[in-house]
């Protein structure tokens, strides 16, 4: 009897073990299926965070990835190596404010009268961005992105043009076109560092302050989609740098620029490191570019390009341009097609799967089909530039520059990137085509709503005349002009 009961007990235990094991397997199967389903959901395309890093007056070749041998930019070089470098990229203006207006709206700023530098002049008052134009921040805010503008604004200082009124949830920066990199005791409203209209008193160096806030914003919004417009005023004048960085480059021939560039690079590195630490870098679309060509006033270099900030030669509007999105863009590549800062708006909308409205009239194109091989050739067949008396256009590799009441020059950049051989007499059909293109484009633009100081217009006119003749400019600033004219008396 005892043996019989023992046998029953063993049988019951065995059955229980079998049932428990079978149940566990079924549950494990369900868990595995659930995990796979979660993995599938997580691997589905996600909208990226988007960051536009815009720097100020940087030289075309003043970065390691662009060939610089004397300026150190390891973090920016790392960003470039992590994405694609555009070798024929351009901004829509050769000076700060209108270039930024083009980037912010994705269209020719001349179409709404924003042509001259600054945001108004003389009797015009402060005009800035037209009230009717939609900004890139407007679009992303409407599509559930947290938006922030950091640094230099220079698109209008009136209430209606404040960044918080132009699509940005947050503004941490200054409204003017430039300011000291160090604290100012009693700054004007336009020059004070502010956060959403309230003055921010800071210690230290402005490039560090902006860099630290960019990191803070990412940390605070790591669980949200965000669009960041990070507009450093470096390396624009005044040539201010930290003592430690000046000491680092005490024997450098371009000491102040080298020190300012090093700090800029460090702070961009802070941002990318924070993105990486938060596991956000791979799904963040980052653009890096300068607002125009290198300036004469900050010792920047444009290398083999002719001209500099403020004129229509390639050195005025061809800029270093990087685009990085590890999840979507093949690393360590270059793209040679004709591209524009306008493309930032259209490409970012495509990345976020935001449809383009029929009446948006964006001038840019979505660059992704060109980068993944779905399309070939140039994203743009034609590009145009105009600032008051000077204008220019690109048609593929041909370039036309016109100077009011003076004349024109025509170049073939495919074999004359330095713009030295005028083909206007030997290529009459090409000249006619580009002149017609430029004329047709101008009929669609507004007359400029404001002018610039006559002394600067005279200097710019002189520079164009001299460079069109392949001669060195005799002066590049109003003060130099006065000395030159005085010496001729």
Notes on the protein architecture:
With 489 residues, the protein is an alpha/beta fold. The chain folds into two domains: 334 residues, 3-Layer(aba) Sandwich (Alkaline Phosphatase, subunit A); 102 residues, Arylsulfatase, C-terminal domain (2-Layer Sandwich). Helices cover 35% and strands 15% of the residues. The protein is built from 13 helices and 16 strands. Strands 7-6-5-4-8-1-9-10-2-11 form a ten-stranded mixed beta sheet, with helices on both faces. A four-stranded antiparallel beta sheet has the order 13-14-15-16, sandwiched between helices. A two-stranded parallel ribbon has the order 3-12. Strand 13 and strand 14 form a beta hairpin. Helix 2 crosses helix 7. The radius of gyration is 28 Å and the shape is globular. The N and C termini lie far apart (134 Å). The relative contact order is 0.14.
Q: Which blocks of ≥5 consecutive residues have pLDDT under 50?
A: 1-8, 10-44
- Label the CATH architecture of the largest domain: 3-Layer(aba) Sandwich
Specify the helix fraction band. Answer: 25-40%
Oligomeric state: single chain
* Content of β-strand: 15-25%
Strand tally is 16
Q: What structural class do the secondary elements suggest?
A: alpha/beta
User: How widely separated are the two ends?
Assistant: 134 Å
Overall form = globular
- Give the spatial strand order of the biggest sheet: 7-6-5-4-8-1-9-10-2-11
Number of domains: 2
Summarize the biggest pleated sheet: 10 strands, mixed
Name of the top-level CATH class of the largest domain: Alpha Beta
What is the CATH homology-level superfamily of the largest domain?
Alkaline Phosphatase, subunit A
Total helices: the number is: 13
**Element string (H = helix, E = strand):** HEHEEHHEEEEHEHHEHEEEHHEEEEHHH
What fold name stands as the CATH topology of the largest domain? Alkaline Phosphatase, subunit A
Please state the CA-atom Rg, rounded to the nearest Å: 28 Å
Mean pLDDT across the residues is: 92
């Amino acid at each position: 009897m005892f043996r019989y009961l023992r046998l029953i007990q063993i049988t019951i235990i065995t059955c229980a073990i079998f049932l428990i094991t079978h149940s566990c397997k079924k549950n494990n199967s369900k868990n595995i299926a659930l995990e796979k389903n979660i993995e599938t959901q997580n691997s589905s395309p996600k909208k990226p965070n988007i960051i536009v890093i815009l720097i100020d007056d940087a030289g075309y070749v003043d970065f390691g990835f662009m060939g610089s041998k004397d300026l150190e930019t390891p973090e920016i070089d790392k960003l470039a190596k992590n994405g694609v470098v555009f070798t024929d990229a351009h901004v829509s203006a050769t000076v700060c404010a209108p270039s930024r207006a083009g980037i912010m709206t994705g269209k020719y700023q001349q179409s709404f009268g924003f042509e001259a530098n600054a945001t108004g002049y003389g009797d015009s008052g402060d005009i800035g961005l037209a009230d009717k134009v939609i900004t890139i921040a407007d679009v992303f805010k409407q599509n559930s992105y947290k938006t922030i503008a950091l640094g230099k604004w220079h698109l209008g200082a009136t209430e209606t043009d404040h960044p918080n009124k132009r699509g940005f949830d947050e503004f941490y920066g200054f409204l003017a076109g430039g300011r000291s990199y160090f604290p100012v005791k009693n700054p004007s409203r336009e020059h004070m560092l502010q956060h959403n209209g309230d003055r921010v008193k800071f210690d230290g160096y402005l490039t560090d302050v902006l860099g630290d806030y960019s990191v803070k914003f990412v940390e605070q919004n790591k669980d949200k989609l965000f669009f960041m417009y990070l507009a450093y005023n470096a390396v624009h004048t005044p040539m201010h740098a930290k003592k430690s960085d000046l000491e680092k480059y005490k024997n450098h021939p371009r000491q102040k620029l080298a020190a300012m560039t090093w700090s800029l690079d460090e702070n961009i590195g802070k941002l990318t490191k924070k993105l990486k630490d938060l596991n956000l870098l791979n799904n963040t679309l980052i653009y890096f570019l300068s607002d125009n060509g290198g300036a004469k006033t900050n010792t920047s270099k444009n290398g083999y390009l002719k001209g500099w900030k403020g004129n229509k030669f390639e050195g005025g509007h061809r800029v270093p341009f990087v685009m990085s999105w590890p999840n979507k863009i093949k690393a360590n590549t270059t793209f040679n097609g004709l591209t524009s800062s306008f493309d930032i708006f259209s490409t970012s909308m495509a990345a976020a799967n935001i449809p383009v409205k029929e009446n948006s009239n964006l001038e840019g194109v979505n660059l992704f089909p060109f980068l993944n091989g779905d399309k070939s050739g140039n994203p743009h067949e034609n590009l145009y530039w105009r600032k008051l008396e000077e204008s220019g256009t690109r048609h593929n590799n041909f370039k036309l520059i016109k100077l009011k009441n003076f004349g024109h020059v025509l170049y073939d950049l495919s074999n004359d990137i330095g713009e030295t051989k005028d083909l206007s007499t030997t290529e009459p059909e090409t000249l006619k085509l580009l002149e017609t293109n430029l004329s047709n484009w101008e009929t669609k633009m507004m007359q400029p709503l404001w002018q610039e100081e006559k002394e600067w217009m005279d200097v710019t006119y002189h520079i164009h005349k001299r460079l069109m003749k392949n001669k060195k400019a005799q002066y590049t600033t109003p003060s130099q002009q006065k000395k030159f004219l005085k010496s001729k008396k």
